[in-house]
Structure formats: C-alpha cells, structure tokens
C-alpha cells in the first residue's frame, strides 16, 4: 500500500457538518439554544469518481462514512464493498456514498489507487468538482472523529477546594474550558455541577448560566461529563447521601496551535494585557472562531472578522480562518444576510479581503469565489432605487449596541458595502474574471461619491447617520467616520476633519462596546493617536485585570462595581467573561505599535512603522507566511529583521535617522529605509 | 387537556425526510445503492411560533424530536422544557428545535394551547409559513415512528418448505414484501437467506439479487430480519452445524389501504388480470409510489405518473399521491430535472394536472404552487433560441428504452412541455394568479403550432422524431403521436391520420416496454380500438399469468422462454417481477371499458362511456371524491348509478337507446343521457 490515501468528501461539507454540531452545543441552564439563523446540513448522498488506468490487477481497501457501493463504468460491483479486486484496464471508478446522520466520506487505499484531491465528487447533480480533504490520512480516523485536543487540569490555589453552603467549590485558577471529571465516583444518586466564570456565578444555583446533572448509577473510576463547559469555578452538590466522589479535575479542551506572534514592552501591565489577550483568543479559537466560550458559542460573522485580524498578530492559523469562513457562509442559495445581519454579510467579504492580504492564499480565494459572487448578488439585489442598501423587514441592521435609528439608508452600511465591492473587485482580478472585476470596481467608484454627497455634513465635519423617508438624519455617530478612516475613503483633508471633529470630539456619543472600540482605537492609531490609545489600553484592559479577570470580557464598564460586572441581557451572570472581541489589543499592539502590516498579498511587500506610544521600549515578532518579522524599538533605536519579502521601515520625522544597512530616504514628513536583505538585522538610530 | 394537539413540522420536511430514508433501502446483494439523483434532507433547525392570549395561567406539556427550548417574546425560558407554566397575557410563544439526525417536530398540549396547523414555522429565515401536520396526534408517537402496517404470513402450498441442495426453500405462494422471521433460533453461527421473486432466483446463491446474512449469537424465540425484502421464495442455508431454527415465517408489510374500485366481466382471465393488477399496485404503493419492490425501490417521476392514474381506478388514496409528489420534487433550488430526466420533470406537472382533475384538491395545488412555478422556470430557462427544449449535456432525455437518437430537439419532449404549460395555466388560474395563467397559456398556444410546423410529416401522416443541427430527423416513432392523441393536440383529422398511419401501422417500430405500452394502449382506446386493446390485454398480461406470475413484471417478451424471462440489465435475475407500471390494466379497464372519467376537477362533471371491447358483459365501480360511480354493461343494457355530480352517459351509435330515467339525445354520432339524479340507477337498453 502506498499510504498516500486520505479521507475525501464534498467541498465545504466537513465545515458545514462540523458547524452544525458545534452550533447546537449552546446551552443555557436547561435549555439547548440553537442558532437564530438557518443551519445548513451537509449533502447526504454523494458520488466520488476517478478515471483509473490499471496495468495489473489491484485490490483496493475501502472505508466509508455511510452506506456505499462501487461501480465500474456505472456497473454496480456486488461484492462486499470493503475490499475489491480491480481488473486491469481503463475505466471510471465511482464510489457512491449516503450518510443520513453525518458527513458522507470515503477512504480508498491501493497500490496505485488512493483517494485524494485528484478524485472528483458530485452531490448527484452530475456536476463534479475536485474532492476536499484535510488531515485525515488514516482509514481508522474518519472526519467524524475530528476532536480538539484535551489535557488534564486540576483545581489550584487557596480555593482549589472549599466548602460551600451546599457542597464544594473548585477553582481552576483561571478561566478554562472543557469536561469536568469526577474520580472515584461511588454510590447511586444525583450530583449537580454549577459552573461559574466568576465565583458569584458558581455559587448561584438559581442564576448560573450553565449546569449539569449527573445521575450516578454505578461506581466509576473516572466519570467524564459529556458536555464541554466554560468555567473557572465548579460548584458541586451531591443530592442526599447517595453518591460521592474523591476528586474533581477536568479535561481542558483546546485547538493545538501555538502563538507565533510575540510582544514585550517596558510596561508589565501591557505585557499582561498581551498575554491575557492571547489566552482569551486561544480559548475562543476552536473548531471555529466563536464569539464566547460560555455564550453564545456560535459563529457570528462580525465577531469572526475581529478574530481573523487578531489571529494575524498571534497564532497566524489559516486553517481556522478557512473553516470559519466556509461555515458562516453556509450553502447556496443565499436566503438571508449572514446571521440575519446586513453588516455581517459585508464583514464576511472584508474578512476574506484581509485574510487574502495577510496570507496571499489565492487557492482559498478560488475555492470561495462562487459563493462570494452569489452573496454579493444577493446584496446588490437588495439595493434601493438610489443604489443604497436599506434593511428589508426581515433584515437586522445592527452596527452596534447603542442608541440609533437604523431605519432607511444607514451610512455605515454603505461604507461596508463599498469596502466589500472593493474586495470583490480585487478577488475577481485575482481570479482572472476581468468582467466582474470591472463591474465591482465601477459600482464601488460610483458609490463612494454618492455616500459623500448624501451623508457628508461640512458643519459637523463628519458623515452623518442615515437617510430615511426622504430626510437626512443628521445624528452624528463615530461609526461611519471611523470606517471612512480605516478604509481610507474620503480625502486626506476630510479624514483629518473627522479625527478632530468626530473621533476626538467628546460631544459625540461615545462607544461602549469592546466590539466597536476595536475599530475606534484602530482608527485613532490611523490618525496617529498612539499615546492616547496606549493610555486607553492600559486603563480599559488593565481595569479588567485589576478586577481579577483572567480572560477579557464581552463588555466592561469601569463605573460598575462588584457582581454588577457579570450581568448582561437582564440576567445576573449573562455576560461572557471570555469573549474573543475582548482580545483586540493583539491587533492594536501588533499593527500599530510593532507597526507591521502587509502591503501586498502574503507580505510580498510590507511596511514596518513602529511607535512607542509612550512606552520606553517594545519588541516583538509578527508572523507572516514567509516567516517572522522581528521588531525592536526604544527611544533612540529601531531594529528590524525579516525573513523574506520587501519592506519599508518608516520612522517619524526627527532630527536624524542613521541605518546600519540600506539607505535612509526622507519621505512624507519622515524617514524610510527599504528592507530587502532577508535574515539581516537593520539597526536604525533616530531622534 | 383538550386533546386536540398534533405533531407539527416544517411543510414538506416529513416527506423529504421519509423519502431520504426509503430511498436508501435499495440493496443489490452486498451493495447499498443510493439514488443517482440529489437527495434532499429536511431542515435541521426550525422555530415554531404562536401568538397566544391567555386569560389564566396554563401548564403546557412539550414533546419534541430534537433538542429544543421555549421563548416568550424572544426571552429564553430556562426551565426544563418539557412542562412549562405560562403566565396570563398576550405574547408570542416560540419553540426552537434542532435535530441533527431527523425531522425536527414538536407536540404541545395544554388547556387552550395545542400545536396544530394554526402555528407557524420557519427554518430560521424569518419567513414563517403555516406548520404542516398529518395523523400524528399522540405525544408518544412522533413522526419518526411512521411505519407501514405488518401482518404475519406463512409459507404455503406444496413447496411451503422443501429441501434444497444447501438448505431449505420456503414458498409464500405469491410475490410478497416484508421481514423474514426465524422462530426458535438456537445456537451460534451464520444463516444465509437468499431471496427469489422466482424459484430460480432463490436457488441461485450467486446471482439472486437480494440476500441477508444473520449472525446468530444467542437463542431467540423469534428473530425478525431488520431489512424488508421483496420475495416469493426464501432459500435458507445454515452454515455448518452452529445455528438452527424451527420455523420460518414473515411479516408482510403494507400500506393499509383498501381498493375502492372494482371490476368484473364475462372473461375470468380478465378478472384475474384486474385482481393481479390491484395486488401489484398495492405492493408498490407504500410510503410512496415505488417503481418496483425488489428494484429500484426508488421514486421515479415517470413511473409515479402511471401509478397516480391507476390509483384513481383502484385505491383512490390521495395521501400517497401527495406524499410522492412532494418527495420526488424535493427542495428548491432546482438544480437538475427530476431524476435527471427531462421528460420526468414534465410528468410531474402532468401528474398533478390529473391529480387535480380527479380529486379537485385545490388546497394541495396551493401548497405545491410555488415549487411548480420554480420548476417550470427552470425548464423554460433551458429552452433553445427557437423556444424548444433540448437536452443539456447533464440531462437525460429518455422517452423510452428503445433505439432512438435523442440529441437535439425531440418532438415528444415538446408535447410534454406543451401539456405541462397547459397544466400550469390551469393551476395559475385556480390560484387566482391571472398574470402567470396568461403567460403559460400564451407559451402553450405558441408552442403547439410550432411543434406541428416543425415535426408534422404529411407523407408519413405523423409527427417525426427530432430536429438536430439544423436537420429534421424523419424517424417515425409512436411516442410523439400517441401523446398528441392522448392530449388531444392537432386536428381531429390529423389524429385520425395518426391512428391509421402510425399507431396501427405495423411498419412503425413497435413499443416493447410496458411503460410506453401504457400510453399506447390508452391512445388506441382514444381512437376507439377497444376490441384490439382487449385482445392485447388478454394476450400480454394473460401471458404473464400463464407463466405463473402472481404480480406483473417490469418487462415481458412473449418470445422468451423459461428463466430468460427473469433476466434484465445483463443480470440473470435483474428484472423486477413486481413493477407498478405492470398494473396498467387498472387504468385501461376503468377509464376505457367502464368508461368513467372526470370532466371537471373532482368529478363535479364527468362522462361515462362504457365499451365491451369484445366482452359479453362487464361491471364495476369507479371511486370519486363524491362517492362511487357504478357501471354495468352487456350487449343490450347499460346501467349507471352515481352518488353525486353531473354526468353524461355516452352510448355509441346504434338503432336505438331507451333510458329508464332522463332523456336520450342524439349527439356526435351516438346517444347521450344526462345523469343528474344521485343514487338512482339509470337503465338504458340499446342496440
């Protein structure tokens, strides 16, 4: 046997199947809470084909997930289908598989015939496409065996095990995720587990968000709870005297990825913020990018975009990006916006735009391209007569959790549409689809001046909120303005006007969600406000650490006290204390302080523009597909070392800049040095 | 509790789920053979909603297939979800259900709140439709429990149990279907069951089409084989001395419907043909109309149409018609023709046209209407520049198993399209969709003269086969011509020309499949050739009975001998000996000899035009939604009694016709009597 075989299936079906399973794991107390959106299933019946030319007879071994049979030039082989002797000759080998309860997949292993990406597959529409495969290379480990890694963990610290009014409290020392285990379980009876991201939550039998009830029926050396939970504390109550156990531990479940990005600086609090952000993102980076591990445990496209960006300065794991993009998009036909939210359809395009820029992964672009085209067609179909996107009654026009009237044409949505069209034009070009590239580009080019004309308010020096029933709603919010800055739309002059008149204007409604603060702080960095943003990072994220946070939260209001912090959605412990969007310092510190960003897909060209933002020194490494870019900066020296590609190091204006290698050029009110010697450290003194 | 609750689900999902299960039951020896077409799955995650106004508090009991929770005005209820106390008030009650492995469905029972068709459901697209329900009115019997009836049967006759070279043969006396049972199973070892629709097949361990292997591991009073099989004979071999049993019986599985139509006549052979046809159709009328019980056990739209027609003269079960129409159509979007076959898309429209005419079931029409419109849009989209349907490379243009070149524009397909457009126009009118009604009518009216102009060959007095690459293929086949006769297209004169020049012309390629002979014999009856068709019925179907058939076959060639009859598709026992389309005498005898047919939907108006076709007398009852129409005829007397509606009794020209009730009018070369007195027997003497 050649051993080159791998499990294969219909493209996207693995991700769609896995997304369905993962999405149905959200529980709130006794309720299983499926997503509020359409949940696709994988195709249940598919056929795989391969043109074979056999010089000598060969026995192939087959394994399948589902019921299956083999045909040769469409004649059914009636043998037991797991080992088949093939005669010499040239013919079409087809394996038909149906799986009512999961992903139909096959594994074929022979001397010369092995299932791999050269096979084609159809969901029996007679249209065949290349089969998909991942890392399932063992006949006995089909894709349905996909599991994250687990590792035993134990309660730690002074509260590792303490009595509670009803039983015992176990503290794992920090927020974690996994399966609780009871060792030495004896007797019969009921054991209740109440989980807490906070101690208060674990102690609240009535209001803790998640709980489990174990019916002990026989002695067990180790009982492992079948459901994974998010917790730091576990509060255990044994009902009556029936059942008991000796020890409680857990299996920590995680995606086996290591951070490739690093960051260290002169401020230890900022270093702790970085580390806690890495851990927060890691816990939420699982089968897919989840919004939070306690709640919702769902895949929301708007949250995904932020995780994608953070990922590029930390784990740089493109597999989870791809799994997530496929899953959240689902199957055609498009019947609703992603997660029902208009903005979230746009964030999907924009996520892929950034994914492509950071990774240069053209093949994934090609893979998703048809579904991008169909989602964009769905969006464009919903424009009003002026060419703007307005919410249909069934659409959710979200933007942010804040006071605003999202009826009619909301300016933020139009900016996201413009960026999506820009992305689609770039994708179409990369795909050689010049006709669509032109169409999208023309739509984009026509839309931008239209937005400006309709929404720019010279008096307020910003884009105003919306247009409804023939009237302009002059409500000034930060949202459209920060996207105009981030996407570099409008003129340089107007962007400066926005910075002063909107972003730094305390009279404008402030943003209270970490979700939109992500973009706000990024936009402030784009406006050169690094010192101010660093102060913000220290006070906001540092504030959570001061309150004992071990991961960052879904929301944080410094004016609250005590257990008030844990309440949300009208429930005392409704807030997620481990929320992906809480980890945004990863992106801010990587992109705007280490200052590394790609200028061409896959970092073929890039910029390094480090900023201290009030720190004494900083250093770190930013992962790229071509190897790391290492940056060090203090008040007199900058060091940069890259593995590949061509970069430009940009240094703000000053009296001087002297480089150990390369030429220092004065440009755009600063200095610039071209970095084109892989592996060599460029040392620049400046000041 | 009011007891008015019933299980509810998303419309069509029950049928789609059941179709998936049933379609995956086809086995050939060791191979499970899924259908060659796309197999849809039901939605896995849906939400049900109901606006409730409660005057006093009420506890509702919930049962669900899948994981579920309840929300009130979109706030999650965290209680264990199976019994919920609702407070007084007016609010929206929503039940969210997800089922990864089957049909999501719920059952809600309270004092005033009960799940029923007044609830709405969405697959979480935010578009809600009324929930579907059938006869599942018991909380403990959800739709997943749907089973046909079973009844114990035993081997009979002289061969009830006989030794074979390897074991024993059991004969159930006639073709049957169900689960073999072994009584008094003892010991451990392997028992092989080889099934035969013929004795030869059961004796052929190597070539029998279906078999089972039982691994006996413990003693069992009654072991029931888990898979249903089609068989008359079971050949049992106990491997070695390990396992044995005392008795073999079976559970006959059937749809619990009784024939409502009857037929008796002076020829006992014709009576046996009728009875055997009823049994053949009954065996194939199950969860859906299947093509054959041994093979394919699939739902083919072309076969379905014939079963639908036969059903109207025998069981008149509209439920199986509806289940089948929904299942074979599947979900939107339409990606291929039904079963991949262009003709089979058209037969679906035409089946519904006849279904509607016979039943008058407007509500089912309304239910399917959106999917009719989308399938017709798919078809019309595929017309060529001349407005004709041509096969795309992935389409199967079938017509019949016979020598013909189906490239280009095949005339038969255009006639089926015309009939489908006629049907769609009628449906649109019935739905009050006058715009589409006009569009379809105009397309139909334009297409008919185009067909005639392109394909009518005056010299051959018929429609010729096809048009390909700018050339007319003058090959003369019966197919387009018999449909022109059946659909009453072309002029009366041309139809007479077709009868003489094509249908009765022995020089024209004869039809050899029972599938197309169905239409051929019907068309001959339309041309008044009742005597000739009766001779054909007696010789063709009588021929199978002479060979010992207990059900009618997929194909029959009188020139073959012995076991040659059982071979097909290159396999010695490949032929199905119990095939729905073999039962076509039901339709022929009912429609053209008893002579009863509806003239307006649901038999509001109808015609009775009995013909002896060479018999001395005949009598029978034809079911209608308004009660039976009874007919008797001999060489001097006709008697008709109807329960409702207005009919016209038509009697061929002769010297006289005298009626006991009503007035005899001379019309169109015959006599006519209006039947408008329900329950009274009209007696007419003629001659």
UniProtKB/TrEMBL annotation, chains A, B:
Top-level lineage group: Bacteria
Residues covered by the Alpha-L-rhamnosidase six-hairpin glycosidase domain: 260-591
Entry-linked SUPFAM superfamilies: Six-hairpin glycosidases
InterPro entries, A to Z: 6-hairpin_glycosidase_sf (IPR008928), 6hp_glycosidase-like_sf (IPR012341), Bac_rhamnosid6H (IPR035396), Bac_rhamnosid_C (IPR035398), Rhamnosid-like_N_bacteroidetes (IPR048932)
Sections of the chain in a coiled coil: none
Annotated transmembrane regions: none
Domain Alpha-L-rhamnosidase C-terminal, residue spans: 595-640
Domain Alpha-rhamnosidase-like N-terminal, first and last residues per copy: 46-236
Any one Pfam family match given in the protein's UniProt record, by short name: Bac_rhamnosid6H
One example of a Gene Ontology biological process annotation: carbohydrate metabolic process
Protein name stated in the entry: Alpha-rhamnosidase
Species: Paenibacillus montanisoli
